[in-house]
From TrEMBL:
The lineage of its organism: Bacteria, Pseudomonadati, Bacteroidota, Flavobacteriia, Flavobacteriales. The keyword Hydrolase applies. InterPro entries: Alkaline_phosphatase_core_sf, Sulfatase, Sulfatase_CS, Sulfatase_N. It holds the Pfam family Sulfatase. This is Sulfatase-like hydrolase/transferase. It comes from the Bacteria.
Length: 473
């Protein structure tokens, strides 16, 4: 009897351990949906990262992600400047559909559906960190342009944001020698401030701005992990937007370069260091293979820095605020360890419009077919394929300043564009002339006419969307 009792006891304990073990395993694997991180640099030129061939800049973290993931050599920002591109990232729609024609000229409309809103409904914890630039973030702030439209109105649970640019080192102080926007005589910063969950921030704002941003993003991710909740984190750095300043330890990494390049490359290296910090954190938490990271820049390099030869669009002509390739084509990659074939270099024409449909497709979420989406899903490419649907790309930039109204349209190897103020519509063969040195408008008039007609169809569709066809607002 005694032996029988002990046998039953051992059996009961074994069953309980088995049940607990199964439950624990279920708990550990509860978060099967991939975590998603969108990282964006600000004014990072195509030629200012190591993985695009720059031998001087130190970007080991991005270079490693490039070697282990997909690098896009033909990736476009939706516009040659910040706010419009940011709107496209979150919605998959051209900024011209949303009435965001340039920086500081509006804000994201409440009816626009963002990735954050969609994923929040799917049970994701959502967080935004860095430069918002899609509307004011202080409700009582009244300015000449724009409107109040903070990230927490667009699906984000946790936020740490500025309205627009701040110095990339000591973001509450005017950099020495800086006399443009935000400069104050007393040495404080008169531009954007950091606001966390609706309240101004006063602590941990010294030193490298990329580190300041990551100091808020990582705790958000850590909390999501502890609650076994999938997360969507949007991390939009200010680097290397002007005023671009690097701290002493980063300047010291570039002793042989000019002062301007020391600061530019130093700030980029500091940002890269924080991206590496994020990757190591994900690895330490054992969620690296369950987290997909998208990285890009919002447009080409800054006008003044490019003109001085400090920042670079690599082999491409032009810079920010222009429809030349240098203003639109930007560094981009996707990293997803354990899921993506390593070392893929894709020359497919892709854009910031593609993020929204790609993320929905990865999660098997059906988009609203009544709302026009300008991007296409990159899921086939992520899954190892090499072909996605041909998707012509259209771009616009419009301001009253200097009567700016620029457009570009890329279809296959050909591109038409009004590249800058004062130019006529031009035609280029990007396959054979990526530097846009030979205008084919007079040599191929029929092709020019056909592509201009296609662009007009797109512009008509954009106008219908922003004037109320897609939603009531």
């Amino acid at each position: 009897m005694k032996n029988l009792f002990y046998c039953k006891l051992i059996l009961a304990i074994s069953i309980n351990f088995l049940i607990l073990g199964c439950y624990a395993q279920k708990t550990i694997s509860k978060n099967t949906e991939p975590n998603i991180i969108l990282i964006m640099a600000d004014d990072l030129g195509y030629g200012d990262v190591g993985f695009n061939g720059n031998k001087n800049v130190i970007t080991p973290s991005l270079d490693k992600m490039s070697k282990e993931g997909i690098t896009f050599t033909n990736f476009y920002a939706a516009a040659p400047l910040c706010s419009p591109t940011r709107a496209s990232v979150l919605t998959g729609r051209s900024p011209f559909r949303q009435g965001i024609f340039a920086a500081h000229t509006g804000g994201m409309r409440p009816a626009e559906k963002t990735i954050a809103e969609v994923l929040k409904k799917e049970g994701y914890k959502t967080g935004f960190f860095g430069k918002w630039h899609l509307g004011w973030i202080e409700p009582d702030k009244v300015e000449s342009r724009g409107m109040y439209s903070p990230p927490w109105h667009h699906g984000y649970d946790e936020t740490f944001a500025t309205k627009s640019a701040v110095p990339t080192w000591d973001p509450t102080k005017t950099p020495k020698g800086w006399t443009s926007f935000g400069a104050k005589d007393d040495g404080s910063w008169g531009g954007s401030i950091y606001v966390q969950n609706g309240k101004p921030v006063t602590t941990n704002l010294e030193g490298d701005d990329s580190r300041i941003i990551m100091d808020r993003a990582i705790p958000f991710i850590e909390e999501s992990i502890s609650k076994e909740t999938p997360f969507f984190a949007t991390i939009w750095f200010h680097t290397p937007h002007e005023p671009v300043v690097a701290g002493p330890e980063y300047l010291a990494k570039y002793p042989k370069l000019s002062e301007g390049k020391k600061h530019l490359y130093g700030a980029i290296t500091a940002m890269d260091e924080q991206i590496g910090r994020l990757n190591q954190f994900l690895k330490d938490k054992n969620i690296e293979e369950n987290t997909i990271i998208f990285f890009c820049s919002d447009n080409g390099p800054s006008d003044p820095l490019a003109k001085k030869g400090i920042a670079s669009a690599g082999p491409f002509r032009g810079h920010k605020h222009q429809m030349w390739e240098g203003g639109l084509r930007v560094p981009s990659l996707i990293s997803w360890p354990g899921h993506i074939k390593e070392g893929v270099a894709s020359n497919l024409q892709t854009s910031t419009n593609d993020y929204f449909p790609t993320i929905l497709d990865l999660l098997n979420i059906k988009p609203n077919k009544k709302i026009p989406i300008d991007g296409v899903s990159l899921k086939p490419l992520i899954n190892g394929g090499s072909v996605i649907a041909d998707n012509p790309l259209a771009f616009g930039y419009q301001r009253l300043y200097k009567n700016t109204e620029l457009y570009a349209f890329v279809s296959g190897q050909y591109k038409i564009c009004i590249p800058e103020v004062g130019k006529e519509m031009m035609l280029f063969d990007l396959k054979n002339d990526p530097g846009e040195t030979h205008n084919l408008a007079s040599e191929k008039p029929e092709l020019l006419k056909t592509m201009m007609a296609e662009l007009e169809k797109v512009k008509t569709s954009w106008k219908a969307s922003r004037e109320g066809q897609d939603y009531r607002w």
